[in-house]
Amino acid sequence: MDALILAAGFGSRLRALGDSKPLACVAGVPLIELSVRMAAQAGAERVVVATGHRAAAVEDCLAALGREIDVEIASERIAHYSRPNGYSVLAGASRIPGDYLLIMADHILNAAILRGLVRCGGADRGVTLAVDRRVADPVLDPDDATWVRRDARGRIAAIGKTLEHYDAVDCGAFLATPELADAIRRAIARGRPGSVSDGMQILADEGRAATMDIGDARWIDVDDPRAHAIAEDWLRRRFREVLGDDWRPRQWRHAA
Prior knowledge:
This protein is α/β, with parallel strands linked by helices.
């Protein structure tokens, strides 16, 4: 299994912690390192990281990490990283021949979510999105969340940040097939900006966008200082939910 991590953007809302969001630390660990380790916990043997803003620094971090863990890490640098995140998918997916886990570098997820996604493939879908039905969770930022409305089968009917009617929220983790990159290309050709959600909507319209309900599992989008503080507390207290039993950050490996 391959994984693709999107780590190209500016991260302006987290600028207080540095000028590179993927390198911002949660409980002393850079977000990009957490993302790679989460992918490895889910069974990924190779991780492609789409880099852009502060690409060289992020790639140096990945090179150091690659010397520590038994996972192949490759970088794909995005020249025009101010474009929507679908362009990062197009670049990264060009190096992946089959299905892959797709993860946003600023999302921290319970390991069970990604392991569940790995088991969700099937010929009846082009993509599966992890969704959370707790749409009133106070951890969420309603102004930044990507909302999802599902049909009676649990397939995506509509997805976007401005939906008026929805029953779930996008957790920022997908099991993607090559159909997702193709759908993003088609969305751009139709005049859409080129976000991941633009491609997802095309697959939804074709009945090819499935969902996986995460149930009680936890996740967080580390997008601003408030979310960062919540993530710090969660990771320090419940690190096994994210990182498993085999690894702890160096500076607190002896913590209870």
